[in-house]
Amino acid sequence: MKITTTHNDLLERLQTVARVASTRSAIQALSGVQISAGPEGVELRATDMEIGLRTPLAAEVERPGEVVLPARLLLEIVRRLGGAAVELELRPEHQDVEIVSGTARFQVRTLRAEDFPLLPSTDGEHTVAMPAQAFTETINRVSRSASRDETRPILTGVLVSVDGPSLRMVATDSYRLSVKQTQLETAIANGFEANVPARALEELGRLVTTGTETITIGVTANQVIFHIGNVVLSSRLIDGQFPNHSQLIPEAFDHELTVETTEILEVVERISLMAQKNAPLRLSFTPGELRVSAQTPDVGEASDVLPIPFTGEPFEIGFNAEFLTAGLQSAGSPQVILKLISPLRPGLIESADGSGFLYLIMPIRLNV
Amino acid sequence: MPHVRLIVARCEVAYTGRLTTVLPEALRLLMIKSDGSVMVHADTGGYKPQNWMTPPTVIEEEEGLLVVRKRAGKTEDRIEIRITQVLSDVTHDMGEAAALEKDGVEAHIQEALADAPHFCGEGFRLVRREWPTDIGPVDLMCRDTADGWIAVEIKRVATIDAVEQLTRYLDRIRIDPAMADCRGVLAAQQIKPQARTLAEARGIACVEVDLAVVRGEREPELLLF
């Protein structure tokens, strides 16, 4: 294999794919980026076996071939090259690739190309076109609620459902649940439901730029494949029964309060500074007033007051400060509706603009 | 009564036996226990002594010299400690030794879950602890609200081996036609992801338990499900 490309192009494409390369796999080739040069052009590929990414590279192919090079090392090398053009040539007799740019020369040992897996592709028949911005905006509203705990793999995913003109994403880590229902401008013919790793969707969010209008989604039995322009992101799907979210949302609440999102968010973020080491954020509701307070032993305490249209018997409820902040930030509307029942029952944050965002959050017990 | 002697001294330590070593002169802590153990500590190197001899030993002491000897087969292990300056030499009466008490071992979890089997599954009631099978006892045998049998295997940290162990017990238990539908539950303070995957593939339920919660010492966390 021998190719010549521009420094800028190579750096940009490597920055995209290197993120996906594995950092802790026993298979060395998975820590690499595969450079495939053929008659159709050059493609860079990386995978950690869960997520895979393919991106084309504009290059002149002098000799076709495939090679796997250590992703992070290659990225660091390319980042520091000074020349405008970069030449990469496989030298099979040395089992390395010579990288030449300007006066700089590198010889980088190759990784075992035969260990690098084939990345999945769709047959083109079972794909749907989706407005990119609506899709990624929906991801951004829910993905933070997905669990990071690998011992419960089902909860590390986002349940993505497409049915006609409706796109719904649900994520939960059992402490909170996010639901975002997005109405699409046009109905999607081939609907689907799939539990997609939140990590893959967050990567997709990074790949979609403001100029991306449409993404194509293909779902197979155990894979989902996203086409973002000429970049292809694939991910395995998470197997198993996702919790039935509609059963978790209480049918009725005792208190419904509409508040300005920025006002309550500012207070919550401010007082959260004193809710360290898992200390709860206390919300004390009295007629016309919400007092937010926090106390961390050996650190200090803080409180602030917010006028709020609360009526009825005063009560106090505790929340995880980070989770409450995330819910308010994700609402994405000027006003939110806080729905509460009692100190030990879940509370609901709903966007007040009818944009279909729900955030159910379990309280923390307060020891008075 | 048992005594421990602690000497802080500037000394050189020479060991002869299966090999020969020398610790050049420096300030060290010498610990001599009533059972004959001798340890030479520096203020670095963690908990491990720089040199030591396990009992039974013979300890001989003369001016500026401490010799510790021990027979090792046909040869003799010998530590010679040449002391040039003593900064401190104290002996303490240690009284009766109390054994290390561990909490949170498997037996404690089993005991706690036997008293509160509902933490292993809704409506579970205990039939027997250490239910015998011909390949060993299963930790708890319970019945659910529909009178179904449930074998519970308890671990502190559940690995794939625990799943295999419970699978073997279930195979034996299910030979009895009356218990052919016996289900399995793996209960542990921590369940490894691989163990959970294998257990679920075999239809074995996994339950992570918090000992303090099971004992009623702490309220459980509030969860959506």
Automatic annotation (TrEMBL), chain A:
<protein>
    <submittedName>
        <fullName>Unannotated protein</fullName>
    </submittedName>
</protein>
<dbReference type="Pfam" id="PF00712">
    <property type="entry name" value="DNA_pol3_beta"/>
</dbReference>
<comment type="similarity">
    <text>Belongs to the beta sliding clamp family.</text>
</comment>
<dbReference type="InterPro" id="IPR022634">
    <property type="entry name" value="DNA_polIII_beta_N"/>
</dbReference>
<feature type="domain" description="DNA polymerase III beta sliding clamp central">
    <location>
        <begin position="130"/>
        <end position="244"/>
    </location>
</feature>
<feature type="domain" description="DNA polymerase III beta sliding clamp C-terminal">
    <location>
        <begin position="247"/>
        <end position="365"/>
    </location>
</feature>
<dbReference type="InterPro" id="IPR001001">
    <property type="entry name" value="DNA_polIII_beta"/>
</dbReference>
<keyword id="KW-0239">DNA-directed DNA polymerase</keyword>
<dbReference type="InterPro" id="IPR022635">
    <property type="entry name" value="DNA_polIII_beta_C"/>
</dbReference>
<dbReference type="GO" id="GO:0008408">
    <property type="term" value="F:3'-5' exonuclease activity"/>
</dbReference>
<dbReference type="InterPro" id="IPR046938">
    <property type="entry name" value="DNA_clamp_sf"/>
</dbReference>
<dbReference type="GO" id="GO:0009360">
    <property type="term" value="C:DNA polymerase III complex"/>
</dbReference>
<feature type="domain" description="DNA polymerase III beta sliding clamp N-terminal">
    <location>
        <begin position="1"/>
        <end position="120"/>
    </location>
</feature>
<keyword id="KW-0963">Cytoplasm</keyword>
<dbReference type="GO" id="GO:0003677">
    <property type="term" value="F:DNA binding"/>
</dbReference>
<dbReference type="Pfam" id="PF02768">
    <property type="entry name" value="DNA_pol3_beta_3"/>
</dbReference>
<keyword id="KW-0238">DNA-binding</keyword>
<dbReference type="GO" id="GO:0006271">
    <property type="term" value="P:DNA strand elongation involved in DNA replication"/>
</dbReference>
<dbReference type="GO" id="GO:0003887">
    <property type="term" value="F:DNA-directed DNA polymerase activity"/>
</dbReference>
<dbReference type="GO" id="GO:0005737">
    <property type="term" value="C:cytoplasm"/>
</dbReference>
<dbReference type="Pfam" id="PF02767">
    <property type="entry name" value="DNA_pol3_beta_2"/>
</dbReference>
<keyword id="KW-0548">Nucleotidyltransferase</keyword>
Automatic annotation (TrEMBL), chain B:
<dbReference type="Pfam" id="PF21003">
    <property type="entry name" value="NucS_N"/>
</dbReference>
<keyword id="KW-0238">DNA-binding</keyword>
<dbReference type="GO" id="GO:0004519">
    <property type="term" value="F:endonuclease activity"/>
</dbReference>
<dbReference type="Pfam" id="PF01939">
    <property type="entry name" value="NucS_C"/>
</dbReference>
<feature type="domain" description="Endonuclease NucS N-terminal PH-like">
    <location>
        <begin position="3"/>
        <end position="96"/>
    </location>
</feature>
<dbReference type="GO" id="GO:0003677">
    <property type="term" value="F:DNA binding"/>
</dbReference>
<keyword id="KW-0540">Nuclease</keyword>
<dbReference type="InterPro" id="IPR002793">
    <property type="entry name" value="Endonuclease_NucS"/>
</dbReference>
<keyword id="KW-0255">Endonuclease</keyword>
<keyword id="KW-0963">Cytoplasm</keyword>
<dbReference type="InterPro" id="IPR011856">
    <property type="entry name" value="tRNA_endonuc-like_dom_sf"/>
</dbReference>
<feature type="domain" description="Endonuclease NucS C-terminal">
    <location>
        <begin position="105"/>
        <end position="210"/>
    </location>
</feature>
<dbReference type="InterPro" id="IPR048301">
    <property type="entry name" value="NucS_C"/>
</dbReference>
<dbReference type="InterPro" id="IPR049173">
    <property type="entry name" value="NucS_N_sf"/>
</dbReference>
<keyword id="KW-0378">Hydrolase</keyword>
<dbReference type="InterPro" id="IPR048302">
    <property type="entry name" value="NucS_N"/>
</dbReference>
<protein>
    <submittedName>
        <fullName>Unannotated protein</fullName>
    </submittedName>
</protein>
<dbReference type="GO" id="GO:0016787">
    <property type="term" value="F:hydrolase activity"/>
</dbReference>
